Amino acid sequence: MVNADAAMYHAKKQGRNGYCFFEHGMNANVHLQMQMQQNLRQAVSRNELVLHYQPKFVAPDGPMTGLEALLRWQSPDHGFLSPDRFLPLAESSGLIVPIGNWVIEEACRQMKVWYDQGHQEWSVAVNLSAVQLEHHSLVDVVREALRKHSLDPSHLVLEITETTAMCNAETSLTVLNKLSDLGVSISIDDFGTGYSSLLYLKRLPANELKIDRGFITELAQDNDDEAIIQAIIALGKTLDMRIVAEGVETAEQQALLTQLGCNTLQGYLLARPAPPEALLEKIAHMTQRTESALVT
Ligand code: C2E
Ligand code: MG
Ligand code: MG
């Protein structure tokens, strides 16, 4: 059965309407996945999960408005893993619920530390997957994390992808309204990659649209991506949302996005995701630079 399963997953990976004969290599993969799932189950209690943070900046280059928490797993067996390596497994096994709860709690704790250090204008953004959104405990978990760390809800942003928000629309709407009533902000991530119903988008209590990196990567003057970005910005502004461009890697993209009217920029050009300690040094450095530029 395990082998047949492995062959089925292999076939599915290659697209629909196909078939595969089982080969030993596939089984190794299944065992690896099972072992990984076993390890992931213990990752929270063994303190193997860490959050890196990537700053968001007012366009074109600051000041910083907040940070996005991005999950990393320091696994003794598999090394340092980014989310695409273990999130699908966490989602299909349901482990994303306890893991996601840890992320919410840890991000609130860290934000409170920054707040107490004087960064009172920042907010922290946490990514939520569809499984978390559908889980009955989400609103309580968020409320409790804010209470535990005495963090004002205005310092927490919840990012959900456009696809998550749009599929199972009525459920998402109910939960997002409850979260919004708590006072947290809602951001629509990877915008432009899914199929949005504009009527439904209008009803979402979202404060922010994040234009997917796919549009930014190939952005250059006078190509289709520029027109699409212009349309997204116009749409977002009509709905009274802040527009964030993610994956900004070049100075050209930074200039063009600012000119097109993006409020906020995020990407390797401005800052890469990093652990909180490393970030503070970098930010202190940047603040000094800005201040000395103002003096001169
Ligand atoms: P996302 O929320 O859209 O996050 C942006 C991803 O793009 C991050 O990858 C970030 O490191 C990367 N990125 C940022 N700037 C640039 C750039 O200039 N160029 C390029 N090439 N990449 C850039 P990461 O950290 O691997 O996360 C991937 C996805 O995993 C995230 O996409 C998010 O959907 C998901 N994710 C991350 N952390 C969590 C979490 O705690 N919970 C849940 N449910 N999902 C998470
Ligand atoms: Mg995100
Ligand atoms: Mg994104």
Describe the overall structure.
The radius of gyration is 21 Å and the shape is globular. The mean pLDDT is 91. A hairpin with a 3-residue loop joins strand 2 (64-75) and strand 3 (79-81). The protein is of the alpha/beta class. Helix 1 packs across helix 2, helix 4 packs parallel to helix 6 (138-148) and helix 6 (138-148) runs parallel beside helix 8 (169-182). An eight-stranded mixed β-barrel has the order 1-2-4-5-6-7-8-9, surrounded by five helices. The protein has two domains: 1-41, no CATH class; 48-295, EAL domain (TIM Barrel, Alpha-Beta Barrel), CATH 3.20.20.450. It has 13 helices and nine strands. The structure holds ligand C2E and magnesium ion (2 copies).
